[in-house]
Amino acid sequence: MIRLPRWVYRVGYRILRVWWYLRRPHTRGAVLALWAGPKLLIVQTSYRRTVSLPGGGLDSGETPIAGVLRELKEEVGLTLPADALRLAQEFDQIVEHRRDHVWLFEAEVAEALPVHPDGREILAATWVEPATLAPERVPKFLARYLAERAGGSSSSCSRAAMSAGVK
């Protein structure tokens, strides 16, 4: 794996945002909500202000499960068996001028495992209780997922609403 300096991720992300604005691409991605009891593994990237779940874009021909497991290993150094994952949500969203089709998987582990963020793309990875997260730092897709998991309004998580571009 090529290890790039942090500034490359920040500059590259800005260039991609311009490209996405001009092209309005359709992208595919997968993220993983990894739970250890009440704690959720979240990551902080070097190029976004919000926290997120481990995951990212899928390579050409890559399945969502293979992609999320690859991203989990690359971003925080964890490996899980594919059969430990459960599809929690699948949705479309419009974000950063691109139409993104996302698979959100869930998995549970017995205890919070040690994580090793790469220090370049992923600045930090930590296990947190979701209620302790500042709402302004939580992306809308993650807020919807957490509300649904906590028994909140499932209508806000409907596939139709997300497909319509509701963020």
Q: Could you explain the architecture of this structure?
A:
The protein is of the alpha+beta class. The protein has a single domain, classed as Nucleoside Triphosphate Pyrophosphohydrolase. Helix content is 28%, strand content 31%. The protein contains four helices and seven strands, in the order αββββαβββαα. The chain has helices at residues 6-23, 64-76, 140-149, 159-163, and strands at residues 26-36, 39-45, 51-52, 55-57, 86-95, 98-108, 122-128. Strands 1, 2, 3, 4, 5, 6 and 7 form a seven-stranded mixed β-sheet that branches. A hairpin with a 2-residue loop joins β5 (86-95) and β6 (98-108). The N and C termini lie far apart (33 Å).
What are the segments in which pLDDT stays under 50 over at least 5 consecutive residues? Answer: 153-167
Report the major sheet. 7 strands, mixed
Beta-strand content bin:
25-35%
Annotation, overall tally of beta strands: 7
**CATH hierarchy class name:** Alpha Beta
SSE run: HEEEEHEEEHH
